[in-house]
TrEMBL record:
PANTHER family: HYDROLASE, PUTATIVE (AFU_ORTHOLOGUE AFUA_2G14860)-RELATED, MONOACYLGLYCEROL LIPASE. It comes from Paraburkholderia rhynchosiae. This is 2-succinyl-6-hydroxy-2, 4-cyclohexadiene-1-carboxylate synthase. Residues 47-271 form the AB hydrolase-1 domain. InterPro entries: AB_hydrolase_1, AB_hydrolase_fold, AB_hydrolase_sf. The lineage of its organism: Bacteria, Pseudomonadati, Pseudomonadota, Betaproteobacteria, Burkholderiales. GO terms for molecular function: 2-succinyl-6-hydroxy-2,4-cyclohexadiene-1-carboxylate synthase activity; hydrolase activity. Transmembrane segments: none annotated.
Length: 281
């Protein structure tokens, strides 16, 4: 059910055409640190990819603060099924390769719709968290020349018992506590958002999902960040990356859980800014 009182600041929308992996989509997006009061229109773009239950609104002010630090424009958008973007029809289940579809089809289609050409993409940084971190890795692998670099924050490369246990616990909380009400502030159709994410992660067919071997084609700079107290994945997730991307750099954060941009924003911003500075074109 749509929530007419959703508390999300005004956004813009882009209409995406039908592709092999999806029908027509309306994508909610917003610029951070752009033009008036921000940086020049020719500054590089940082694209932000949210977590499995995220949206534009759930990032809060972190994209803006990081873009100010980097001197970049920020493109923040809600993936299909989240925020004010086209909801997932309730009878539709995300496929096992849904993150590949996001990286291969939907993000490039959004960039096309916004007129972001290849020259701008070659200077563009992809910054993703959790499922969004996995999508950032896949984008860098599938479009190795259409970015300047990537930052994957608490990404998933494969499914661990810890992940499944935590996601099952989140479902229990969603169905028995105020979690559903709280999340409804960030999504027009909160059940579409929640069950799209939760159902696929708890699907037995998803247990063998892995993107590790697909990362070998990543050529651009890559930073992977994870907190030691992450309850959705162990440090084995980012430790696997250099096996396939030898030039990748890792940052491990103490006293930090699954969301470093909320748990340790200053340390995260410092790690990203230092890395980007070393590789800035």
């Amino acid at each position: 059910m749509q929530n007419p009182a959703i508390e999300i600041p005004a956004s813009d929308f882009a209409d995406l055409p039908v592709t092999a992996s999806h029908g027509p989509l309306r994508i909610e997006y917003r610029w951070a640190n752009n033009a008036a009061g921000g940086v020049k229109n020719d500054a590089p773009i940082a694209v932000f990819l949210h977590e499995g239950l995220g949206s534009i609104a759930m990032w809060r002010d972190w994209p803006q603060s990081l873009c100010e630090r980097l001197g970049m424009r920020g493109l923040v958008y809600s993936r299909p099924g989240y925020g004010l973007s086209t909801p997932r029809p309730h009878h539709v289940k995300w496929p096992v390769n849904f993150m590949t579809d996001q990286a291969r089809d939907i993000l490039p289609a959004l960039l096309d719709a916004l007129g972001i050409d290849l020259r701008e993409r070659e200077r563009m940084w992809i910054i993703g968290h959790s499922d969004g971190g996995s999508i950032a890795l896949l984008y860098a692998a599938l479009h190795p020349d259409a970015l300047a670099g990537a930052v994957a924050i608490a990404p998933h490369l494969f499914v661990e018992d810890l992940s499944v246990q935590s996601i099952a616990q989140t479902r229990l909380l969603y169905e028995t506590t105020e979690l559903r009400s709280k999340l409804s502030r960030y999504h027009a159709d909160v059940d579409s958002a929640f069950y799209g994410w939760n159902d696929i992660w708890l699907n037995p067919a998803f247990r063998d999902w892995s993107i590790a071997a697909e990362l070998a084609s990543i050529r651009k700079p890559l930073l992977a960040v994870q907190g030691y107290d992450d309850n959705y994945g162990t440090m084995a997730q980012i430790d696997t990356i250099p096996e396939h991307v030898p030039h990748a750099q890792l940052a491990r954060l103490d006293a930090c859980g699954h969301s470093p941009h909320r748990d340790a924003p200053d340390r995260l911003n410092e790690a990203i800014a230092a890395f980007v500075s070393r590789h800035r074109q």
